[in-house]
C-alpha cells in the first residue's frame, strides 16, 4: 500500500492555517517571580583561606611561596606537631594554598551542605587529585558561617615531558560538590511587619505599576502600592505559614505583555551588538568609508667593489601605501520594527566593529530611538 500524499495546493493551505494559528496564539506572559523578588530574601558570599594536600608534585614552590610553608606549619602546630628549632623550611611540593569561596543561600540552616569553589593563589601547576583540609568560611562581618573540606573535582587535564606541555581547560581551580557544611544561619527579615516589599530586577515604572495592578486584582484593592520604579509594597498576612502561601501565590501571578525600554547593548571588547525589539530608526543618511595603511619591508643587499676591503651591508627598504575606499552616502529609511532595523544596518555592509561607531553616530544625530549601553 502506498502512503497517502496530499496535493501541493492542499499542503500549502495546511501550512498557512498552522501559521495563522501560531500567530494568533497568545504570547507567554511573564510571572512576577521572573521580574521581581522579595527584598531581604538574598544569599550571602563566603570566603576562606585553606590548603590543598595530596597533590602529585604539582603544588606550590615553597621558595617562591613562603606562605604555603607557614600555613602548613600553623596547621601542624594545631595538630600538636612542631618543627625542631633551627630546622629548614620544608619543600612542600604536594601542598597548595587556595582561596575557597561559596554562596550561602537564603534560609540555609546549620547542618545543610553547599557547594564550594577552590582556586589556587600560588604557583601550583595543578590541583587535580588534591584534598581540601578543613577551612572555615567567613562572611563580610568576619564570622564563620560554614566549614569546607573534601576532594576536589577539576575539569581540566594536562601532561608535560621533555619540555613539551599539553593542557586542556583549567587546572588551578576546581569545585567540591556539597563540600561545605553550614554552621550558622543568617536571619532573614521575612516575617517582620505587616507587609512585604517586592524589588524589581530593573527600574521600570510601567512594570511596577503592572505588578501592583495584578496583585490588587487578585487580592483586593489597595493591597499593593508601587512606591517607585523598582519597589512595590504589599500587605501580607502575619501568620508565617499564611505569609509563605501568600508569597507563593503572588509569584505565580501573570503580568500583561509590555514593551521594554529601547536599548542597544555594545561590547566594545568583542564587537558584539545586541538590540531589543523596541529599537527603532528614524530616517538618516550615512557615509562610511575605510582607510587602510599597508607597510611592506624589502631587504636590500649592498655588495662592495672587488678588492675594496668593504663589507656586505643588508638594509631594509620600507614602502608605505595608503588606500582610501570610496565612501558613498546611503539613505536609511525609517525602521519601525526590529527586523527593519536589522535589514537597514545590513545594507551598510559594515563589520560589527564599524557598527560600533556608526550606531553611536546615529544616536548622536537623533535618528536612533534607543538607549546606548556600552559594557
Model description:
The protein is flat, with a radius of gyration of 33 Å. It folds into three domains: 44-80 and 89-157 and 166-182, no CATH class; 190-251; 263-304 and 312-374, no CATH class. It has seven helices and 21 strands. With 375 residues, the protein is α+β, with helices and mostly antiparallel strands. A hairpin with an 8-residue loop joins β3 and β4. The chain starts with 7 loop residues before the first helix and ends with a strand. It has a six-stranded antiparallel beta barrel with strand order 2-3-4-9-6-5. The protein has a four-stranded antiparallel β-sheet with strand order 1-10-12-11.
* Strand fraction: 25-35%
Written as H for each helix and E for each strand, in order along the chain, the element string is HHEEHEEEEEEEEHEEHEEEEEEEHHEE
| Alpha carbon gyration radius | 33 Å
Low-pLDDT stretches: 1-27
Number of alpha- plus pi-helical segments = 7
Helix content: 10-25%
The structural class is: alpha+beta
**Overall pLDDT score:** 82
Strand order of the largest sheet: 2-3-4-9-6-5
- How many strands in all? 21
Question: End-to-end distance, in Å?
Answer: 63 Å
Number of domains: 3
Q: State the major sheet.
A: 6 strands, antiparallel, barrel
Which shape, going by the Cα principal axes? flat
Organism: Oryzisolibacter propanilivorax
Signal peptide: 1-29
GO cellular component, one term: bacterial-type flagellum basal body, distal rod, P ring
GO molecular function, one term: structural molecule activity
